[in-house]
Please model this.
Amino acid sequence: MSEPTALPWPGNGARPGVTDADLLARTAGGDTAAFSTLYDRISPWVYGLVRRVLRNPAQSEEVTQEVMIDIWKTARRFDAARGSAHSWILTIAHRRAVDRVRSEQAATDRNDLVGSRNAEVDFDQVSDTVTTRLEAEQVRRCLGTLTELQRESITLAYYNGYTYLEVAQQLDAKLPTVKARMRDGLIRLRDCLGTSTGGTR
Model:
């Protein structure tokens, strides 16, 4: 179904005797006039719910528009036997609002993680030494000299690609504890690998 040519911002939109379910059914058939009426009727409710979740007016307007587009595209999925049209629409709105909150939080977490990594200059220098100087077989052999906790942390980070925060979550440990394990483990790896590449013992 193509998008409607116009999406009017909420007006009065009242048509006595016509239910939201009726309007959804007509919208599912591509009736833009029915959708316009439904938009006028339901968008204030959608905006109110989204605003309570997001609190930010501009973002709430954006998400409201996204919800109404979703309704236009997916109206045929509405099943009156499973609940009211009003509840179905507000469920979509709540899901969209929560998705936006999670997206914003994920972006914040990524920025915080980048800042944390930038602060770990010495740690990263040790990490670079280990990962660029030495052969994979030697690294695996020297991993055997680490404690189990050091080996778990380093393996998750460097072989499985987890971030520090993800390693902490996997091991159910605090982030500073994981960083300390990895730093100490990498120093031991560097020493072991430096010995193994420096000649016979």
Residues 85-119 form the longest helix (35 residues). DSSP finds nine helices and no strands in the chain. Confidence is low (pLDDT under 50) at residues 1-15, 197-201. The radius of gyration is 28 Å.
